C-alpha cells in the first residue's frame, strides 16, 4: 500500500521511505496517536511514502478568519493600512452573524486542508448590534473543529472600545487580549488598558505592534516593560513589528534585547505587510517585513502568520503557510528549512502547544506533501497533501494535470 491510497478517516500505523524537512530519509511508527520508535515496529506493512515528504504540521499564528473572503464585497481598496481599515469599518456593519460564521468556517477548512493544525485568529469587535458577534462565531468554530485544529482566539480591540466589552469577550471564551495600540491617538495608554484586562483575567496577550514604517513608533518597548514580570506560562506575542525593519542596526539590537528579556515572541506577516506598507515610496519601496534573521539571532522565537485571507487588508492569501515560507525566503532572506520551521514548529511553540516534530513520544500530527525536496515543494506549492492528526487522516488534496501529446 502507498500513502497515495490513504483516505480521509483512515488511522495509520506509520509510514516508510518518506523524506523529512531536511530531505533526509524518514520512516516512523504510530501507536495510539503518538509517534513511537521506528525500531519497535512489528505490525503489518506501513504505507510506502516514497516520493513524499513528511513535515511538521503548519501553524498560522496570526490570522483574521472573521474577515476572510470579503475582498470583493468590501470594496477592494487599493492602498495603505489606513485605507484598508476605513474600508473594513464601512463594510463590517453590513455583515450578519450567519455570514460571519459561514465565511470563517470556509476559511478554517482551507487552513485544515493545507496542513495547518494550529491557528491563532484575531476577532474584531462587531460594529453591528452585537459587538461580540465575531468572537462568538470563532468560539463556536473552535469547539466544532477541536478534533481537527487547535484554534486560539484573540480579542482584537480598537481605539475607543470600552474595556468592559473586552472583558465580556474573555468571559465568552476568547483566549487572549489583543489590540493595535500603534493606531491609537494615545498608544501607551491604549496598550496599558488592554494589558490591565489581561492581568485581571490571568490570560496572555497578542498585540498588533508597530505596523508602520515610522521608526519612532516603538510600542514594543512599552509592551516589554509591562510584561517582563509576567509568569512564563502567559503568552506575550507581538505581531507585525514593521518599524523594527527601519531601525539603525545598533538601536535594533538594543530593542531586541529588551524584547528578549521580557519573553516576547514576534510574529512576522510577510504577505500582508508587503501589500500594505510602502505606498508612499514609489521607488526603493520598503518591504515592511520585520527583520526575521536578526530577531532570531537574539534568541527570540519567531512565528509566522498569513494574516489576511482575501479581505480589504490583502486581496490574496489562501490559508497555506507555504506561501509565507516562500515569502520569508525571497523577501526576508531566511533559509528555506528555517522558514518552514518558523511556519510550523516555532508557531506551535509561540502558541504554547505541545511539540509535533515527528519525534518519538510526540503527538502524531504531520502533513505529507508529494515532492522530493523541501525547496521543490515550496517552489511548486505542493498541491498534493495528506494531513494527519493524532494518527488519523483528516484531510487529503490531490491534483492532476493533463497535457496534449505531440
In short:
Pfam families: Amidohydro_3. With 406 residues, this protein is α/β, with parallel strands linked by helices.
Task: Describe the secondary structure blueprint for this structure.
Elements: E1 14-19, E2 25-31, E3 34-36, E4 52-55, E5 58-63, H1 71-74, H2 81-91, H3 97-114, E6 116-124, H4 133-144, E7 150-156, H5 163-171, E8 176-178, H6 187-201, E9 205-209, H7 219-227, E10 236-240, H8 249-261, E11 265-268, H9 270-276, H10 292-297, E12 302-304, H11 321-332, H12 336-342, H13 345-350, E13 366-370, H14 374-380, E14 385-389, E15 392-397
Parallel strand pairs: 5-6, 6-7, 7-8, 9-10, 10-11, 11-12
Antiparallel strand pairs: 1-2, 2-3, 4-13, 13-14, 14-15
Textual characterization of the structure:
Keywords: Hydrolase. It comes from Bifidobacterium avesanii. This is Amidohydrolase family protein. GO terms for molecular function: hydrolase activity, acting on carbon-nitrogen (but not peptide) bonds, in cyclic amidines. This protein has helices at residues 71-74, 81-91, 97-114, 133-144, 163-171, 187-201, 219-227, 249-261, 270-276, 292-297, 321-332, 336-342, 345-350, 374-380; strands spanning 14-19, 25-31, 34-36, 52-55, 58-63, 116-124, 150-156, 176-178, 205-209, 236-240, 265-268, 302-304, 366-370, 385-389, 392-397. The protein is of the alpha/beta class. The mean pLDDT is 95.
Amino acid at each position: 500500500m502507498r500513502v497515495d491510497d490513504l483516505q480521509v478517516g483512515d488511522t495509520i500505523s506509520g509510514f516508510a521511505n518518506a523524506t523529512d524537512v531536511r530531505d533526509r530519509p524518514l520512516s516512523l511508527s504510530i501507536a495510539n496517536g503518538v509517534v513511537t520508535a521506528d525500531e519497535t515496529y512489528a505490525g503489518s506493512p506501513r504505507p510506502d511514502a516514497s516520493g513524499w515528504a513528511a513535515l511538521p504540521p503548519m501553524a498560522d499564528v496570526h490570522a483574521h478568519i472573521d474577515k476572510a473572503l470579503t475582498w470583493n464585497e468590501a470594496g477592494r481598496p487599493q492602498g495603505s493600512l489606513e485605507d484598508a481599515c476605513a474600508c473594513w469599518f464601512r463594510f463590517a456593519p453590513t455583515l450578519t452573524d450567519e455570514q460571519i460564521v459561514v465565511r470563517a468556517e470556509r476559511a478554517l477548512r482551507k487552513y485544515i486542508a493545507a496542513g495547518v493544525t494550529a491557528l491563532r485568529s484575531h476577532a474584531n469587535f462587531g460594529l453591528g448590534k452585537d459587538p461580540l458577534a465575531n468572537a462568538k462565531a470563532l468560539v463556536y468554530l473552535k469547539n466544532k473543529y477541536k478534533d481537527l485544529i487547535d484554534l486560539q482566539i484573540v480579542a482584537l480591540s480598537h481605539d475607543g472600545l470600552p474595556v468592559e466589552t473586552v472583558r465580556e469577550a474573555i468571559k465568552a471564551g476568547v483566549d487572549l487580549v489583543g489590540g493595535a495600540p500603534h493606531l491609537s491617538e494615545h498608544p501607551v495608554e491604549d496598550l496599558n488598558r488592554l494589558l490591565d484586562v489581561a492581568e485581571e483575567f490571568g490570560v496572555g496577550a497578542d498585540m498588533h505592534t508597530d505596523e508602520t514604517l515610522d521608526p519612532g513608533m516603538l510600542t514594543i518597548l512599552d509592551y516589554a516593560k509591562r510584561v517582563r514580570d509576567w509568569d512564563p506560562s502567559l503568552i506575550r506575542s507581538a505581531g507585525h513589528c514593521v518599524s523594527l525593519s527601519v531601525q539603525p542596526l545598533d538601536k535594533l539590537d538594543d530593542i531586541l534585547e529588551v524584547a528578549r528579556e521580557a519573553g516576547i515572541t514576534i510574529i512576522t506577516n510577510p504577505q500582508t505587510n508587503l501589500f500594505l506598507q510602502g505606498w508612499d515610496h514609489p521607488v526603493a519601496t520598503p518591504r515592511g517585513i520585520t527583520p526575521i534573521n536578526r530577531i532570531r539571532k537574539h534568541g527570540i522565537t519567531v512565528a509566522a502568520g498569513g494574516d489576511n485571507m482575501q479581505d480589504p487588508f490583502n486581496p490574496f492569501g489562501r490559508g497555506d503557510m507555504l506561501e509565507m515560507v516562500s515569502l520569508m525566503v525571497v523577501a526576508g532572506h531566511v533559509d528555506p528549512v528555517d522558514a518552514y520551521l518558523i511556519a510550523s514548529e516555532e508557531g506551535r511553540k509561540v502558541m504554547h502547544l505541545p511539540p509535533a516534530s515527528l519525534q518519538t513520544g510526540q503527538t502524531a500530527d504531520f502533513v505529507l506533501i508529494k515532492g522530493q525536496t523541501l525547496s521543490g515543494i515550496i517552489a511548486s506549492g505542493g498541491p498534493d497533501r495528506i494531513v494527519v492528526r493524532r494518527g488519523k487522516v483528516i484531510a487529503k488534496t490531490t491534483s492532476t494535470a493533463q497535457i496534449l501529446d505531440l
